[in-house]
Specification:
heterodimer; A: 115 residues; mainly beta; seven-stranded mixed beta sheet; four-stranded antiparallel beta sheet; 0% helix; 50% strand; B: 107 residues; three-stranded antiparallel beta sheet; 11 strands
Amino acid sequence: DAGVTQSPTHLIKTRGQQVTLRCSPKSGHDTVSWYQQALGQGPQFIFQYYEEEERQRGNFPDRFSGHQFPNYSSELNVNALLLGDSALYLCASSVGLAVNTGELFFGEGSRLTVL
Amino acid sequence: AQRVTQPEKLLSVFKGAPVELKCNYSYSGSPELFWYVQYSRQRLQLLLRHISRESIKGFTADLNKGETSFHLKKPFAQEEDSAMYYCALFGNEKLTFGTGTRLTIIP
């Protein structure tokens, strides 16, 4: 089991561009959460997907959107990139909506640099 | 709003000495708290959760509702404990992380 896999691992974009990040959850997991981790900060919750719907959302603008596919994989899209969007984007998977168990499995992240 | 505060960004401890990583939280409801750890070149992973009242790798954490704290403790530090530690709170259907403490064990 490869666990949670994310792609790409690194990417560089310029301001105003759009980016799509991808995540495959751990085998047997059906829920995907996305986090943004800026340098020197803890992960910040962006949103969570379950049954192909956005179930919870953190304090992020509408420029951040996502999607979950029938095979439970997920995409994070960010439009109109700003310099402040530069960060490590983490995907975490779990079973069902029981995030309160804390049993989140994290990927290695996609490091986005916006120039 | 919920908040997790880890006052120490860096903490250095000698091998064999006790370790205490501080975590304070702010939440109006009944919190569920966790410690996550990230070892060098590894992924972020769950270390322990308060509801289990378990000891993992010699670490324990007690929820103190009066002081709104969930400090992580270990009586005798080992070199392999060097890592980044994050305290996290589950509330309002989401997990909120602190800014983390980098623990370095000095041989």
